[in-house]
Amino acid sequence: xxxxxxxxxxxxVPAPDDDSPAAQRWREVEAGRDRxxxxxxxxxxxxxxxxxxxxxxxxxxxxxxxxxxxxVYYIPSGSMEQTLHGVSSGGDRVLVNKVVYDFAExxxxxxxxxxxxxxxxxEAAIPGPSTWYGKLFQSVGSVVGIAPxxxxxxxxxxxxxxxxxxxxxxxxxxxxxxxxxxxEPYIYQDWPFLAGTSDCRSAVxxxxxxxxxxxxxxxxxxxxxHRSGSKDSSYNCRGSEPGECQGPIPVxxxxxxxxxxxxxxxxxxxxxxxxxxxxxxxxGLGMLAxxxxxAAGAGVTTLRRSRWRRR
Length: 311
Prior knowledge:
The chain is of the alpha+beta class. 23% of the residues lie in helices and 20% in strands.
């Protein structure tokens, strides 16, 4: 005889109209058993097991975001003062949009992070760790932006793009692109320039003078906001120096658009992108910038070329 029926579990089944205490107790017991079968209680993992799992998930998510979307970069030198502070002023950390240039080309006035060409001189001496745990910390810290950067990564502002001719200076000491002086309100501690006494026509040229230089195809002319303290495209060819400029950088070397100061908290701010060749100020994230008049026809070609050139 089978023993699986309700009678086998609790005895005889009370009649439906049986309201006696024994019948009610029977129904309560049976209802509790049904709930325990339908919704088994899931065993909770102990905290010491869940914590490492959560940390690993957070680290992986951070790694994926910093590799493909946004990355935090540490500013070691003062070449972009006072827009960005170097180590001597606290050392800003900036958020870099690594996606925006998959859909558009860098524009004049934008602050970009890029890998310096082999011929470029480092701006800051960054000693590397000598111990294995130091190297491990640097590798892990670089993922979340707390470790010192590669000394060959630079942050500068785009001044001129491919096909444009850049030089300095006009009679007021301003940089010119295609013969038109730029509007650069961010410049900090420029080289001395005194019209008629120490300018680009004097026997000994002012240190501010360089060029003219025509930017090659798929290249950018970049300069630091702290003009007298920046090793940028104009480095080594200013004034009466006989050397050649460090020169333009390949567009393919651009890592991304610096859009926001994330640290320290007191420095939270959007990194503005003034339209230095047109006079209109654009403040905001690069990915939200509107296309310029006349650029719509070239948009498809530019987008296709940008996607293919990206690493």
